[in-house]
Structure formats: C-alpha cells, structure tokens
Amino acid sequence: MAALGITIALLVWVAILLLISFWKQIHSSWNLPPGPFPLPIFGNFFQVDLKDIPKSFAKLAERYGPVFTLHMGGRPVVVLHGYKAVKEVLLNHKNDFSGRGEIPVFEGHKDKGVIFNNGPTWRDVRRFSLTTLRDYGMGKQGNEARIQREAYFLVEELRKTQGQPFDPTFLIGCAPFNVIADILFNRRFDYNDKQCLRLMSLFNENFYLLSTPWLQLYNNSGGFLHFLPGSHKRIIKNVSEIKQYTLERAKEHLQSLDLNCSRDLTDCLLMEMQKEKHSTEPVYTMENISVTLADLFFAGTETTSTTLRYGLLILMKYPEIEEKLHEEINRVIGPSRIPAVKDRLEMPYMDAVVHEIQRFISLVPSNLPHEATRDTMFQGYRIPKGTVVIPTLDSVLYDNQEFPEPEKFKPDHFLNENGKFKYSDYFKAFSAGKRVCVGEGLARMELFLLLSAILQHFNLKSLVEPKDIDLSPIAIGFGRTPPHYKLCVVSRS
Ligand code: HEM
C-alpha cells in the first residue's frame, strides 16, 4: 500500500513539473515570432539536426518565415534568416540586440574579455581593443609590414617541404598565429616551436569540438549537462590552458612595463590597469586582461588559419581558378616582389576569389548568439530583454538572388561583366553592427597577402584527382571545419 502511495505521489509530482515547464514555455513565447510547437522539457530539440543546425534553420525558415522562434533548453531563441531580417537586427536595432547570448562552455569567460562578454565591461574593452588594434595596424611597422614579414617566413617554410606531401594545418596556421602574437605580445615563434604548436593545437581542437553535435546539445541545454563526461570538459580545460598562457605573458609584461612606451597590446591593457589603480570598480583587472588576450589570440589565429586551409583545398579542386590567379600575380606583382596591399586594386580576380572563399565556406554559419539588451518591438513582435537572438550569416552568404547557384564555388559572384571586383552588401562573413568582428581589417589583409605570397611562389598539387576532392566540412556548428588533407607545393621558380 505504502509503495503504491509513493508511486502515485511521484507521478503527480512529475505531472506537476511537466505542467509548470509547459506553462513556462507557453508563457515566455506569448508574443514571440511563430515557430514549431515546443514539447515540455525538450522544447524543439527534435526539430533540429545537431549535425547541421544551420540547415535545420533554413528548413524551419521555409515553413515559418524569416523570423521564427525555437525552444532550446527551456528558453526561447529567436532566429533571423535572410538578408532583410539579419540586417534589420544587426543594423537598425544595433543597440537592442548587441548583448552576447550565453555559450555555457565559455562560462569561464562570461562577462570578461570581448567575444563572450555580456556584462558592463564589454563596451569599454571592445572599444579599447579596437583602437589599440588600429593603432598597431597603422604606420611603418603596421599590419602590412607585419604580414609581409611573416609571408616571407611562410614561403621559406613551405620551400622546406621540397614538394613532399604535408598537412597544412599548423604550417599555414603559424603565419596568422605569428601576426597576432606580434601585436599582442611583441613576439614571433619558429614554425616548429613547441609552445606555438601546443597553443595552435588547443585553438584548432576547440574550433573543431565546438562544431560537433555534442557541443550543440551541451550549449543549447543551458549547462544542465555540465556534470556528464564529454568533450565539453576538454574545451574547458583547453580554454583554461590558453588563459594561463596569456596571464603569464601579462604578468611578465607587468614586471618590465614602461608607462611611457608600450611594446604591444598587452602593455596597452596593463597601462589602462595602472590608470584605474584607485578605482573601486576597475575594468582592466588581470583576469579581464588575460581573457581579452586569450579572445584575440584564439579569434585572431583560428579563423584566418582555417580560411586559408579551406581556401587551398578549394583551389586544388579548381586548378583553372588557380591558373588564373597565377596569371594575375605574374602580371601585377611579378615573381619576386613581396605582395602589397596596394596590389589589391589591380588584382580583382584574387580579391573576388578571397571573398568567394569566405562566402562559400561560411566559417561561422549561424554567427555567434546575440541577446536582447532591452524589451524590443521587432516586426510586430515583442522580444523581451534577455532573449537569445541568432542573426544567421549563411542565410545571407547563400542568398540565391544575390549569388546565383550559391552552392557552387564561383569567383564570378564578386566580379562584374568587365572583370572588375563587384562589391556585395550580402558579404557578411564578419557579421555587422555593434558586435561586428574586431579583426575584420586584419583578417582581410592577411588573407589577401598570404594567399598571394603562397601562389606567387608555388603551384598547389593535390594527392588525389581534383574531381575527387570533397569540400564538405567534417563538422558544422559554431564553425564549419574543413576536412583533413595533405598537399604538395611545387616551387614555380
Ligand atoms: C576570416 C577571419 C574571421 C572571420 C570570418 C571572423 C568572423 C567573426 C564573426 C562572425 C564574429 C561574430 C560577430 C557577431 O557577434 O555579430 C566575430 C567576432 C569577433 N572577432 Fe572575428 N573573424 C575573423 C577574424 C578575426 C581576427 C583576425 C580577430 C582578431 C584580431 C577577430 C576577433 C574577433 C573578436 C574579438 C570578436 C568579438 C566581437 C564582440 O563580441 O564584440 N576575428 N568574428
């Protein structure tokens, strides 16, 4: 009898919990855009494919329109699909949706640094990072010279492969790594330096793991899965190792800091810390400084490195495009002068190829999640403060009116009928508005100069027939990760 009573009590308890969760879901989405009906507890998890969430978003947009609501981990998420809706959220409502949606695996960086900061210090740290990056980017020893110097080392390193097959991941990645390391820490590393390889492997592993189905589940479950075993633990450990590295660099810099002369971005952040010495609510604490450095180090390396690696694979699949690039480089730069930023004006084909690589790979397909900073009326719906908003970028980069046959790699997407570079406002690989990528200028310069330098000196040689090269990513989530591959580079001189 007692057992029956306990069972009934438990069942009633579970039924009440289900009802409460159901009520909360209905209530919280009262005035939100339409979307599929959420199940209690699970919400709309069964309507998304964790292996390819961007594709699920596209399918749901066909049914519910360009602005729709999903319930993930008990919270509503508003998804924007297509140029008009994405642009409206990012540019017309730039302050209303400039918060950063929570990413549970980066809980340790929450409200610190730039990328994952959703707290009161974000505005200051972002503005300061932008200004300092700009200052270090300008002048004689600015980004152009910095990248050109690194292009020289990259070419030398590629030459050492002597036409033998190699995995480009870390060899190519070392160039953007050294460019950002120079800005942040006034330091460059040899291509076989153990510390450099270790840090790059942490960045690379995190970027891959963040795009796997488990992490989609983890990050969309509001952190409930934290205590289970899984690759989220690995990311958290890697993040902490990266931060430990940046903290050590910051401490080292502090010991030799000269307030009259900054050596790099770390010094500039430390100088701000000194200025706030007597403040009761300092922004630039050692913790905030090390997270800011870790953010810039990771974002500044992995994005550009992955784009270059994906780009080389694409060019091997389309040797006729590579051939056209060689012709343009021969004509404009010649065989020995180091590529310069001014060459871009005379190299519309290379410019178009770089844009098309970024469009085609759509490196951050669903963007990073944003968050409503206040209650906002948007297209007739009331989006409450704190709602996660996802302005998807692949929906803009794959717009089939602007880019006919978007699934195909076609540099013509960025060329007019006279072969001149054609600007497109749909090119939103770096997002837009208040959260737009802080490293956009640097990344664009690196992609152009490094790719030009590689192709100026080498022909790319695939180990398989071009037609057999599969460009499909191996993971799609936070980012789109290219397949592993090896290639040979054959000297052109
Ligand atoms: C191909 C290269 C790159 C791509 C495609 C890219 C893309 C993006 C995207 C899509 C975002 C999110 C924007 C949003 O939330 O709306 C972002 C943010 C960010 N990126 Fe990049 N990025 C690249 C290179 C870089 C580089 C080189 C740096 C560092 C120098 C960098 C630093 C950042 C930072 C700090 C943020 C956070 C901005 C904020 O939350 O306020 N990125 N990037």
From TrEMBL:
Q: Which cofactor does it need?
A: heme
Q: What does this protein do?
A: A cytochrome P450 monooxygenase involved in the metabolism of fatty acids. Mechanistically, uses molecular oxygen inserting one oxygen atom into a substrate, and reducing the second into a water molecule, with two electrons provided by NADPH via cytochrome P450 reductase (NADPH--hemoprotein reductase). Catalyzes the hydroxylation of carbon-hydrogen bonds. Hydroxylates fatty acids specifically at the omega-1 position displaying the highest catalytic activity for saturated fatty acids. May be involved in the oxidative metabolism of xenobiotics.
- Activity-regulation annotation: The omega-1 hydroxylase activity is stimulated by cytochrome b5.
Give the protein name, as stated in the record.
Cytochrome P450 2E1
Q: Main EC class of this protein?
A: oxidoreductase
Q: Which SUPFAM superfamilies match?
A: Cytochrome P450
- Note the InterPro entries from the entry: Cyt_P450, Cyt_P450_CS, Cyt_P450_E_grp-I, Cyt_P450_E_grp-I_CYP2E-like, Cyt_P450_sf, Cytochrome_P450_fam2
Leader peptide range in chain numbering: none
Q: EC number(s)?
A: 1.14.13.n7, 1.14.14.1
Give the main location: endoplasmic reticulum
The pathway to which it is assigned is: Lipid metabolism; fatty acid metabolism
List keywords of the entry alphabetically: Endoplasmic reticulum, Fatty acid metabolism, Heme, Iron, Lipid metabolism, Membrane, Metal-binding, Microsome, Mitochondrion, Mitochondrion inner membrane, Monooxygenase, NADP, Oxidoreductase
Q: Which gene encodes it?
A: LOC109701182
Q: Which reaction does it catalyse?
A: tetradecanoate + reduced [NADPH--hemoprotein reductase] + O2 = 13-hydroxytetradecanoate + oxidized [NADPH--hemoprotein reductase] + H2O + H(+); (5Z,8Z,11Z)-eicosatrienoate + reduced [NADPH--hemoprotein reductase] + O2 = 19-hydroxy-(5Z,8Z,11Z)-eicosatrienoate + oxidized [NADPH--hemoprotein reductase] + H2O + H(+); (4Z,7Z,10Z,13Z,16Z,19Z)-docosahexaenoate + reduced [NADPH--hemoprotein reductase] + O2 = 21-hydroxy-(4Z,7Z,10Z,13Z,16Z,19Z)-docosahexaenoate + oxidized [NADPH--hemoprotein reductase] + H2O + H(+); (5Z,8Z,11Z,14Z,17Z)-eicosapentaenoate + reduced [NADPH--hemoprotein reductase] + O2 = 19-hydroxy-(5Z,8Z,11Z,14Z,17Z)-eicosapentaenoate + oxidized [NADPH--hemoprotein reductase] + H2O + H(+)
Question: Which topology term describes how it sits in the membrane?
Answer: Peripheral membrane protein
Give compartment(s).
Endoplasmic reticulum membrane; Microsome membrane; Mitochondrion inner membrane
